[in-house]
Amino acid sequence: MQLLIGDLGVKRVKKAILIAALMVGGISSVSAHQEEEPNEREVTPADLEREEITVPFIDTENAEIMLLIGAINFDNFNTRGAMGASLAYHVDEDWFIEATYLESEMSDFEYRSLGASQAPSVDEPVYYTSLNVGMNMLPGEIYLLDKYALSSTFYLIAGLGSMNFADDDKFTFNFGFGYRVYLNDWISLRLEARDHVFKNTIVEEEEFRHNFEFRFGVSMFF
Amino acid sequence: MKIKQTKKRIVAFLYIALLSTATMAQFSSKPIELVVNVTYIDVHWAPGRGYPKFHALGKGEQFVVLKQRTDWIKIEFGKNKTGWIKAKHLSDTLTSDGKAVRRYQ
């Protein structure tokens, strides 16, 4: 038994010495090989030419002006014609921002009938101003006869503004939709429907009023 | 009454001034000639990705830049044909004297 252990131990020692010798031999051969290679390497200089860049000045046409006519139905009152203008800026092909000014007249006949006023009714001017955000969707074409195709787009629009009537300002929220047809790339026709919503107080009761508007406009991009 | 009339006249003048400016702006853009430097560039009917493509400009084909609307550029190519390409394709073109083109510096 002692002989067996002794034999195993000798074998292990021999094995360890052999492995160590191989490792030392390998390391020394690698270092010798490295010593043979020259330390200096040829460095290839970067041959880069800075390219000449041109940034062309291109005339942009992101602004749009529109003249419009239409009709407004005043909630619980009457329907009157309206006219106005808007100025829009197209941020990208999907979104645009628009400021609108609209002018109409409203008769105070119905209003006076509530208050039993004996004075004759008059037409008071009504002014709408609003700032809106629009989203173009569903771009397409409409076809006239067999030859002509006009680009078109459907859009949604919503915004905040104010309504001035008889020196009284009311905060309004409006939303609606429209359809735009391009006669060429800088003139378009727009058909639009909107609802102007505001809070009104009559006889100590607050309620939301809806003034529906329908408008037609001619717009130009510049 | 006079104030109302004056206000209406001012508003009417502003309408006319803005319309005149818009009309004049249509005729003031200077054309820029470019050459396609990639395999092809799609040309659309109108400035929007939803409008149909009706032509593809091939490599080496020349066109003239007319104006820009949002991310789209109106070009003229071939025999007085016009269309719209995406503004990002400017970097896929060269000027007529071989310079690279970028939208921004």
* Relative helix content of chain B: 10-25%
Order of helices and strands of chain A: HEEEEHEEEEE
Give the integer mean of the pLDDT values of chain A: 83
Report helical residue fraction of chain A: 10-25%
Biggest sheet record of chain A: 8 strands, antiparallel, barrel
User: Helix count of chain A?
Assistant: 2
Shape of chain B: elongated
* Structural class by secondary-structure content of chain A: alpha+beta
Radius of gyration computed on alpha carbons of chain B: 19 Å
**Uncertain residue segments of chain A:** 1-5
End-to-end CA span of chain A: 106 Å
- β-strand percent of chain B reads 35-45%
Structural class of chain B: alpha+beta
Multimeric state: heterodimer
Quick synopsis:
With 222 residues, chain A is of the alpha+beta class. Helices cover 19% and strands 57% of the residues of chain A. The radius of gyration of chain B is 19 Å and the shape is elongated.
What would you say this structure looks like, in words?
The complex is a heterodimer of chains A (222) and B (105). The model of chain A is unreliable at 1-5 (pLDDT under 50). An 8-stranded antiparallel β-barrel of chain A has the order 2-3-4-5-6-7-8-9. Chain A starts with a helix and ends with a strand. Chain A contains 2 helices and 9 strands. Chain A is elongated, with a radius of gyration of 41 Å. In chain A, strand 5 and strand 6 (148-165) form a beta hairpin. Chain A has 222 residues and is an alpha+beta fold. Chain B has a 5-stranded antiparallel beta sheet, with no helix packed on it. Helix content of chain B is 23%, strand content 39%. The longest helix of chain B is centred in the first third of the chain and has 24 residues, at 2-25. The mean pLDDT of chain B is 81. Chain B is α+β, with helices and mostly antiparallel strands and 105 residues long. The interface between A and B is large, with 33 and 40 residues. Strand 1 (53-54) of chain A pairs parallel with strand 8 of chain B.
